[in-house]
Specification:
This protein is of the alpha/beta class. The protein has a single domain, classed as 3-Layer(aba) Sandwich (Rossmann fold). The chain contains ten helices and nine strands. The protein has helices at residues 38-49, 61-75, 91-102, 126-154, 175-194, 214-217, 234-247, 256-267, 270-281, 284-292, and strands at 28-33, 52-58, 79-83, 108-111, 158-162, 201-205, 209-211, 231-233, 251-252. The protein has a seven-stranded parallel beta sheet with strand order 3-2-1-4-5-6-9, sandwiched between helices. The longest helix is centred in the middle third of the chain and has 29 residues, at 126-154. The radius of gyration is 19 Å and the shape is globular. 42% of the residues are buried. It binds NADP nicotinamide-adenine-dinucleotide phosphate. NADP nicotinamide-adenine-dinucleotide phosphate (NAP) binds next to helix 1, strand 7 and helix 6. The site of NADP nicotinamide-adenine-dinucleotide phosphate has 29 residues, from helix 1, strand 7 and helix 6.
Length: 293
């Protein structure tokens, strides 16, 4: 099912704001998922400034139109929003079909749409986790595998999959999210190694804390250490990430403290890392109760 703000949409009624103006091959084309805000919106700004024609995808059509309007007036960029729930089982297939119909073959794909769920794992219905996995894992995989062949044929372009620092370590109170991002990192690195030397760049972006709507959707405000975490703005993150991507880095970890955390997660004794994570991720209220007991 596709998401439509006025309801009643089906898989054949994806709506776009405007059709692509130029024929593929005459310019630079990018698909960015989750571009109605946060990190995805920043990628859209940066790529539009570099002259890319964009297709941007998310559920919130008004926000997509806002982003498209800004980029069109600021950079005269051709930006086509597609309002769609990418956690739907047929979403990737419908999106690829729609791109094909529009004659839009992306040089760059940024699989950014995703979200987290934090708190006592069993407090959240199983269906919510499955929905998150469908978005973070299933759709990302399907889009990557369907859009890669055309890039390989052209011997250029790339896929940037947004993982997380969470990919490097299991996450108590956030175990399904951490596992989903571990998958993204593993899948992307494997693919990158397999298609090395083809002219196509395949990278995993592993941000730490970035100031976006992510934390409130994931209920992370409850984590008591959250205020102390080193933070990047989405603009800082995307500027660094894009440079690293263009350089061909397979795993991109922006920021020194994040690099240190990833290193520590991989090299310190695992039981120690898990103890620290359990303490960090524990919801504030419970941590307080335990301390008082
Ligand atoms: N912010 C952080 O600290 C952080 C750290 C590590 C990794 N990340 C990763 O970075 C990526 C972007 O997150 P963000 O920080 O920019 O969060 P955000 O501000 O919440 O943005 C998430 C984007 O994903 C879209 N999205 C969510 N559910 C969707 C669905 N079912 N179908 C289509 N689009 C959907 C949202 O648009 P709609 O709501 O309009 O659908 C929005 O555009 C995610 O993969 C996240 O896991 C974030």
């Amino acid at each position: 099912m596709l998401y439509c703000s006025n309801g009643g949409c089906d898989a054949h009624s994806i709506r776009g704001r405007e059709a692509m103006a130029d024929k593929p091959g005459t310019g630079k084309y990018a698909l960015i998922t989750g571009a109605s805000g946060g990190i995805g919106e920043e990628f859209a700004r940066l790529l539009a400034a570099e002259g890319y024609q964009l297709v941007i995808v998310a559920r919130n059509e008004d926000q997509l139109n806002r982003v498209a309007g800004i980029l069109n007036s600021k950079h005269r960029a051709t930006v086509s929003p597609i309002a769609m729930d990418l956690s739907a089982l047929d979403a990737a297939k419908s999106l690829v079909q729609e791109l094909h119909t529009r004659g839009f073959s992306p040089d760059v794909v940024i699989n950014n749409a995703g979200y987290g769920i934090c708190g006592h794992t069993l407090d959240t219905p199983v269906e919510d986790y499955l929905n998150m996995l469908d978005l973070n894992v299933r759709t990302l995989t399907e889009l990557s595998l369907n859009l890669l062949p055309a890039m390989l044929k052209r011997k250029r372009g790339g896929i940037l999959n947004v993982a997380s620092l969470a990919a490097f370590v299991p996450g108590p109170y956030m175990s399904v999210y951490h596992a989903s991002k571990a998958y993204v990192l593993s899948f992307t690195e494997g693919l990158a190694s397999e298609y090395a030397g083809t002219g196509v760049t395949i990278s995993a972006l592993c941000p730490g804390y970035v100031m976006t709507g992510f934390q409130s959707r994931a209920s992370m405000d409850e984590i008591r250490f959250i205020k102390m975490a080193p933070k990047l703005t989405a603009e800082e993150l995307v500027t660094m990430a894009w440079e690293n991507f263009k350089r061909g880095d397979r795993v991109i970890i922006p920021g020194l403290s994040n690099k240190f955390s990833a290193f520590a997660a991989r090299h310190l004794p695992h039981h120690l890392v898990m103890q620290v994570l359990r303490r960090i991720n524990k919801p504030a209220e419970e941590a307080y109760i335990h301390e008082q007991a």
